[in-house]
Amino acid sequence: MGRESVAEFLGTFALVCGLGTAVIGGARAGYVGVALSFGLVLLVMVYAIGPVSGCHINPAVTLGALLARRVDRGKALIYVVSQVAGAIVGAALLFAIANGGPTPISGSGLVPNGYGIHSPGRYSLLAGLASETVLTTLLVLTVLMATEVKAPVGFAGIAIGFVLTVIHLVGIPVTNASVNPARSIASAVFTGGWALKQLWLFLVAPALGAGIAAAFYRVLRVSRVTLPLRRADQALESQVIERGEYQSGTGAP
Fold it and tell me: Which residue in 116, 86, 77 sits closest to 10, CA to CA?
């Protein structure tokens, strides 16, 4: 369990560091640059830590996996704690780096999620709730279906990374795109004030989205076999054996 919690901590830390594209890159990166940053970090993390923990790195994904019976309650709780801790440490690092530059930032420079006057496009509470719920549903459902027993092996990271990119392209103008309570908590902690008051939406909407995704998954899945996300992200047994033979020097050149 120790290795898995460390993997979730590091993965969420890396994902939140993707905010650096917005915090440090700013206008030079634009919405597309920020969206690609999050998507590519997640894609890489799926392959880097997926075999260890399943690469949830998002409490909404962990909740979806729990409701889909692909992770147990005890592990899910430890995952969420590790994710929130990793997100806060990642935000702290970004805050320190950004304030080492010529133009120091306040906590709001960590791109907190918001609605109303705190939405980039001045979108309403209802629009933010709908956006976060639907986009989280899309993310969690993609994670669950791309790691199904009968899904193509080795391609989950690509699907998951690209769907997060699309989600950010849609969601940034509305709420600064959360779909991840750990990321929202981390930004709100450093921003304080209004960000903490509006944080409830970015906890409730992803939870709703995770529940909807799990319900759709139970209808759509093509196999009755439930596979933990960690196992789904691991190499096939034949690949493991082949790699072991190469390492031992017994494999063919």
Answer: 86
